[in-house]
Write the structure tokens for this entry.
Amino acid sequence: MSDGDASTRRPLRTDLTPIVDAVAAADADAFVAVGDRFDADLRYLTRFAGPDRAYALAVVPGDDDATARAVCCAPSLFRAQAEREFVASAHDRDDGDGDGEFHDGVAREVRTERAGDHAGERAAAAVRDLLGGEERGGDEDSDGEGDRDGLDDGDPTILVPPSIPHDAAVYLERAGNGLASTDAVTTARARKTDAEIDRLRRVQRAAVAGMARAETVLAASEVGGDERERPTLRWEGAPLTTERLRRAVNATLAARGVRDASDTAIGVGPSAADRHDAGDDPIRPGETVLVDVSPRGPDGYRGDLTRTFVVDGDGGWERRAYLAVESARAVALGEIKPGVPAKTVHGEAVAELAAYGFDPNAEEGEAGFIRGAGHGVGVSLHESPSLSSGTELRPGHVIAVEPGVSDPSAGEVRLGDLVVVTEDGSEVLAEYPFGIAPTARE
Amino acid sequence: MSDGDASTRRPLRTDLTPIVDAVAAADADAFVAVGDRFDADLRYLTRFAGPDRAYALAVVPGDDDATARAVCCAPSLFRAQAEREFVASAHDRDDGDGDGEFHDGVAREVRTERAGDHAGERAAAAVRDLLGGEERGGDEDSDGEGDRDGLDDGDPTILVPPSIPHDAAVYLERAGNGLASTDAVTTARARKTDAEIDRLRRVQRAAVAGMARAETVLAASEVGGDERERPTLRWEGAPLTTERLRRAVNATLAARGVRDASDTAIGVGPSAADRHDAGDDPIRPGETVLVDVSPRGPDGYRGDLTRTFVVDGDGGWERRAYLAVESARAVALGEIKPGVPAKTVHGEAVAELAAYGFDPNAEEGEAGFIRGAGHGVGVSLHESPSLSSGTELRPGHVIAVEPGVSDPSAGEVRLGDLVVVTEDGSEVLAEYPFGIAPTARE
């Protein structure tokens, strides 16, 4: 991202100890994850922004005589990148000579042999090798099919994420392993390190710049008189549409180093309730314009910032809704501290909205429907903890707090910020001002 | 994208007949796919740009008395979007009243009941219902756990993509189904319809605009004298780096409607060989600058355009390489026509590079290493047909033809274009000029 110098950044690296501990706690023998670069678990575990075909990670705990080991089975064309991102970045001393100690005590290596085989087969071979079930030979063929018989004395148990690709799971099973699923990765991902919070803050600052662009465009727009029946906004000589506004936001994000802005959502009026819509609608005066900027930063972490504007509003439903949502947001932020069940935050926000006259029992599509108050954010836009869960908040949880209300006949108002749970409360990662009437911010 | 009017576009919709046929050919009972919005198969099959949690598609063939049916099990908040993208877009008459005939004869519907359950469970329930194993009741609970006993008369067989999430596969199996994997989706995806080619052409035109931006920035750069030892390029008052150039390209892509530019890769000099690097290196005169623009368009289709430039070059290795690669590209394009094995295209390109003195047997990291000549492109950046496979080319295959050579001591030269296989040859989807010395193109 544009602020901060790479040389002063905390290194982004994952502590694999919780995975090692989960294997030990389950009395299992290894952990394997398989996926492509869109797999958030694998991205988190390896820090390797891998290929768009499957690769694998195998982790085996150590014992008194050996340290725990982790092997990334990568395509051969990606060897240098995997060495850099998975191995070198995990060294305590990044002196590049490869003999640094690993920060979490888990020794990492990249293997590219048998690169043409399925990642599940390669992971099975790596586990067999790490467990010492077969002496590892000097050439690439020594891990071939014939080795399978070597493992019959007690089937190893491998922990896997629940959604590991089925073909990879079948390869692991055919190689003589039993599988058990683990939520250790989900749990580990939920609590962010200082380096992760740094990345989340950076991408959220880009989201702030994108939001400022959107608000500035709205502030600069004028009510057009061309259409006889329903006026629309005009900007730079043409009708302002959700697609034009999205492009303006995304160009700002790109200039700040964001490479993926797929989740920039602009919704107008009643259609704002369908917040996943990526259509091209005219933006009209008096309608709610919901701007949800959720970029993905270069390290894979996500921002999530939401504001709602009305150009030339009449101070009706949307102003009442804005006051209620702003108040619900304040109440929600006030609830956040370690030890509080996540759903309490949602519950208190809903209670505040209800105090403003919005029906807490309204269904989606009914007047006053209240949305979920938020969700965890990290390498996925939606991850643990959910604010509808009973999970106790803990320091390092990062949450998009985004209460909102919608009404099919009026529109939707939502206000969302990214906050980190601290030792004694919470901190907003990047502030953005409030106000339903747009103001030039650039 | 910016060119063309939405109202004149061909509707983007998937013919599910090959899936129905694959079920029949395998003597199976149904097809199920499960994944989130990053799952390219599911995106292709449903045209639903779904949520980042798992959803499902179930397809059951019809018989003499019934049409084939397809059910999308979506989260309830996405109902309207799924109805629009999965159901309405597949109507022959898009009159919005829901009674249109489906273009491929497969009746589509969205189900949101049991939205809290795992997508695998929901798909199992949908299959059971479609197969008539259980009378479907009027309320949401009728598909509950107790139904499982209703299916014991002959276990249904369900075809699944090989990489379906393992937990989903386990849910399907526990519900009494046998699973078999199918490559029907991969095969269907490889041959593009006119509407898909239209989307590929649009996003490739955005890639052309991004490339023009990169070339123009390079043409406007000057050799800086600030650094005593090695000069760098300077642009708009600051050193030009790969990150600055990438941001300039991506801002242009965003302004053209691209939302995901994660795969814009800029590599300089020897590091260009590591084309997946997303670092921030100075760009120097005399070095190869490889620009690979592979945006993802709003409908999910990918562009892929590659050019190589040298600012202030001395006409050495890189000029010889450029001539060789340009010639190899011409030879490759000349080979492409229906009936030709894909690997022939690669083989002829390699032979041409060898005729220019580049070693066809060089390994990666050695002087003159020759890269694969290309790959299929669609909703994934790399999909069938691979140019290293024996697959026969057929009309509608879309391929990134991108021969290149690299040398660790000199750099990398690659030239890539997106072409569609036509009835009697091939057509470049969007032309971009050639030339190793950058020219202002904007």
Q: What stands out?
A: Chain A touches chain B through 51 residues (CB under 8 Å). Chain A has a mean pLDDT of 89. Chain A has two domains: 6-188, 194-428. The first strand of chain A starts at residue 30 and ends at 35.
